[in-house]
Amino acid sequence: MNDNIALTKAVFDFLTELKNNNNRDWFEEHKPIFKKHQSEVKSFLAAVKNNLNHHDEIEKMKLFRIYRDVRFSKDKTPYKTHFAGSFSRLGAHLRGGYYVHLKPRESFLAVGFWDPNKEDLFRIRKELEMDANEFRKVINQKELKAIWGELSGDELKTAPKGFDKEHPDIDLIRKKQFVFVRNLTDKEVLSPSFLDEVDKSFKAIRPYFDLMSDILTTNLNGESILE
Q1: Contact, 48 vs 195, CB < 8 A?
Q2: For residues 99 and 107, is the Cβ–Cβ distance under 8 A?
Q3: Going along the chain, which residue ranges are E strands?
Q4: Which position among 59, 61, 136, 187 has the lowest Cβ density within 10 Å, counted as fewest Cβ atoms?
Q5: CB–CB of 176/152 below 8 Å?
Q6: pTM of the predicted model, to two decimals?
């Protein structure tokens, strides 16, 4: 593990200042400081990726831009007040992704399926319609639940088209996202052991990813759909 890589309080101090001075003049004046902290976060995320590759296969790491897209937003402040990075699992065989969100008093980790495409969403729902027992068993595993809690994500108010609203597993079938979120305190994020804690959390979700990968790479008969 990369025990010597930790985030400094200065990163959060900068984000707090940015929140209070969210304008282009201030940001341009403080851009060298921003670049320094961005580099620190990027190094931390690279260490997260390195750890992940010891027990998973990561295809892509992304550090999100600080600039906000304000075209369709009522909030016209130009900059995000957080740093964030995501990690996509390898190719069509391994599905799902990891996410790290760093913001004073609002940091969190997230894992799962944020925006499944239409075909994937339908496949997951059909699996749950047919038999949700294994899915429930996995998401209720003791270690997984101790770290990640309950499955979350946006959901429909009623049954999706073509599904029975009286189905016993409709609580799962109506979900549009299949994610787990772990909220973090500033103390946890700034701890020297945070890198290891992130890796421990991401390791704990593996049974869920393995199940979802199996679902999304097979048909309802359990036959592989991969070439």
Answers
A1: yes
A2: no
A3: 58-63, 83-89, 97-102, 107-113, 178-184
A4: 187
A5: no
A6: 0.94
